[in-house]
């Protein structure tokens, strides 16, 4: 996966001052190995952190920068780091990198791992120093075979250079790093399900509290951060808080840059590092080039399949959490999808809900039974066999599976696009109701799981 360019908005070349995540990328999309990475100022931030900064200073710097998680939830990274215990006697603690990138329409972490593996390792090294963790794991989606190969080579290069292992940079600090490939389950993107999987258990989310910072992998304090999140750390340490905050556009409450993209029937689908606060219209028109000839934009999702649909009129929203929140959904991963006017929304939602139903861990009843129920109803509407009341039943499921109603956030994310699709395109759902169908009270229609 390579970064692409299009239009006047992307004429400025990437530089260390404006594109901290991507300026080291090669034009031929080949990996940047250790010698080249160090020639491009790689590991300079790690050397600064080890030589000039105490662990608490690193934590405070990341907290002051306003860096938020880039996996979709957007929790402040420095605050999460601050939850780790201060007790020096708790010397067994872990740092986990969540690289289980299974959100449909999202591939940003894959690009970072395949082309800039040492940037992730440097980010984890600095983070480990800050959190006093002696061992780290990159929990990688099993299908990312190339990423695994490149990360393992980069780990060996870093070990040979004394950047991993014992007495790193002569500091007396030890840190081991391992690449762990998972079996490929969407639910492993939830941090406690990831921890269970790493331990060899079924990937079910855990009850919180206790939070991983207190009781994580193998019962020890654990911090879990996303790939893109960790890749921001070297630039923050190397260039400072004020510089990092100044990267975002005016009006954005989020700081720094973000890997954003657009897919679908656009002229130039791709992935770009852009400042928070850029408008979705700039992303869609100046970078993605707008829709291909013969297609019209019907709606779009701002950041993965678990975010709500928005209309073309919402393209002037700024791309940051609060900006997208103002128009009714979430920023998510920041990789948008354009839906063209040839797509039937009932069929699209049936496909999405089949994915989410299959990826449910099955632990809690609303998710285990509610998502297959939505698939059954959507399939009936898609085939023109729906009954009166089916749409109301679907809306009831959106409420029953919403935030706070289930054990984790899987089901709320699964039904958010469903609720928004009915809101904006209800006639398409109504068209699937069979003529003269008998009215059935909402939520009374029976479900046969797997039917």
TrEMBL record:
<dbReference type="InterPro" id="IPR037207">
    <property type="entry name" value="Nuop51_4Fe4S-bd_sf"/>
</dbReference>
<dbReference type="InterPro" id="IPR037225">
    <property type="entry name" value="Nuo51_FMN-bd_sf"/>
</dbReference>
<dbReference type="GO" id="GO:0010181">
    <property type="term" value="F:FMN binding"/>
</dbReference>
<keyword id="KW-0520">NAD</keyword>
<dbReference type="GO" id="GO:0051287">
    <property type="term" value="F:NAD binding"/>
</dbReference>
<keyword id="KW-0874">Quinone</keyword>
<dbReference type="GO" id="GO:0051539">
    <property type="term" value="F:4 iron, 4 sulfur cluster binding"/>
</dbReference>
<keyword id="KW-0285">Flavoprotein</keyword>
<keyword id="KW-0288">FMN</keyword>
<dbReference type="InterPro" id="IPR011538">
    <property type="entry name" value="Nuo51_FMN-bd"/>
</dbReference>
<keyword id="KW-1278">Translocase</keyword>
<dbReference type="InterPro" id="IPR001949">
    <property type="entry name" value="NADH-UbQ_OxRdtase_51kDa_CS"/>
</dbReference>
<dbReference type="InterPro" id="IPR019575">
    <property type="entry name" value="Nuop51_4Fe4S-bd"/>
</dbReference>
<keyword id="KW-0411">Iron-sulfur</keyword>
<keyword id="KW-0479">Metal-binding</keyword>
<protein>
    <recommendedName>
        <fullName>NADH-quinone oxidoreductase subunit F</fullName>
        <ecNumber>7.1.1.-</ecNumber>
    </recommendedName>
</protein>
<dbReference type="Pfam" id="PF10589">
    <property type="entry name" value="NADH_4Fe-4S"/>
</dbReference>
<dbReference type="GO" id="GO:0048038">
    <property type="term" value="F:quinone binding"/>
</dbReference>
<comment type="function">
    <text>NDH-1 shuttles electrons from NADH, via FMN and iron-sulfur (Fe-S) centers, to quinones in the respiratory chain.</text>
</comment>
<comment type="similarity">
    <text>Belongs to the complex I 51 kDa subunit family.</text>
</comment>
<dbReference type="InterPro" id="IPR011537">
    <property type="entry name" value="NADH-UbQ_OxRdtase_suF"/>
</dbReference>
<comment type="subunit">
    <text>Composed of 13 different subunits. Subunits NuoCD, E, F, and G constitute the peripheral sector of the complex.</text>
</comment>
<keyword id="KW-0004">4Fe-4S</keyword>
<keyword id="KW-0408">Iron</keyword>
<dbReference type="GO" id="GO:0046872">
    <property type="term" value="F:metal ion binding"/>
</dbReference>
<dbReference type="Pfam" id="PF01512">
    <property type="entry name" value="Complex1_51K"/>
</dbReference>
<keyword id="KW-0830">Ubiquinone</keyword>
<dbReference type="GO" id="GO:0008137">
    <property type="term" value="F:NADH dehydrogenase (ubiquinone) activity"/>
</dbReference>
<feature type="domain" description="NADH-ubiquinone oxidoreductase 51kDa subunit iron-sulphur binding">
    <location>
        <begin position="346"/>
        <end position="391"/>
    </location>
</feature>
